[in-house]
Amino acid sequence: MSQQLMDLVEKTSMKDEIAHFEIGDTVDVHTRILEGEKERIQIFTGVVIARSGSGTREMFTVRRIVQGEGVERKFPLHSPRIAKIEVQRSGVVRRAKLYFLRDRIGKATRLKQRRTDHGK
Amino acid sequence: MTTGLLGRKVGMTQIYDDSGTVIPVTVIEAGPCHVLQVKTTERDGYEAVQLGYLDKPRRLASRSQRGHVATLESKRQRSRSTAGAPLSAKADCEPKRFIREFRGGTEGIEVGQQLGVDVFTDVKAVDVVGTSKGCGTTGAMKRHNFKGQRASHGVKKCHRHVGGIGSSAFPSRVLRGKKMAGHYGASRTTARNLKVVRIDTVNNLLLVRGAIPGPNGGYLMIRRTNKIG
Description:
The complex is a heterodimer.
Chain A: H1 2-13, E1 26-35, E2 38-52, E3 59-66, E4 69-76, E5 82-89
Chain B: E1 4-16, E2 22-30, E3 33-39, H1 41-44, E4 48-55, H2 63-69, H3 75-83, E5 96-103, E6 114-115, E7 125-131, E8 136-138, H4 140-144, E9 182-184, E10 188-200, E11 205-209, E12 219-224
Antiparallel strand pairs in B: 1-2, 1-12, 2-11, 3-4, 3-6, 4-5, 7-10, 7-12, 8-9, 10-11
């Protein structure tokens, strides 16, 4: 009973439709940024290396290399500040957390492309 | 209108506000509550509304508990009615598991009335009274936030001890009320001035910002906050 009530509350904070993406996919995350009065969209592109949590608390981690330095950003999946998530490329991976990518540099960070319907 | 309501802690979660900021919330199932008794200054010496929350099976309720919510045939009641004494109003509902009363707010309240979470519609903040989780016997560090002793520099086997508990020859005793290790938790605790985030009148849910005392499923008294400002 109480779990049903919790689900009811959490549902109000969750997005109805979330773009399907998997671990190892290269995604464009469109985030809404408020600058004073104006709102603009910033895009963060990288490889999804982890998904954690469940319900409204679900988060995902995107990793990219900027000027030779690894940058990771963690996004709340259901946040209203995330406008869109676009899958650019799907990668072949065999685990749920790709933390091994942190130890790799250069060409070794590439993942083999997976041919799927939703990946471009 | 009553100042409070009874309820149960459902659990904690987080929701997003319009700007996308995460708010940590506790979900409380507040009501529906039956009004079991209205206390008046003439009769009881003070004004209060007594509420009952959640039905208790009749087989578990004592006769006095059953008689509190509904009129039962009894010798005393028969003799009182023949003497012409007025009958006290009864809610005419099932016996209740959790019964508490709130001071004041008796205007417009009748015995037997059912109150839902909508009594908090225009309330900005509430106080929540619950029973905190029992911790059993705990040390002084956890119970009274003592510092303990150093990890090194010659401290031997008493890193989490209380330390000294008073002076020597005078007064030759430990002062009353000295904070020491002992039973901690499972006591009445009030969380004050919690912001009301959302009210769901259909499911009788009240969402407040932050944590409240007690385990999930614990019974609660929720009242309009008495904090000023």
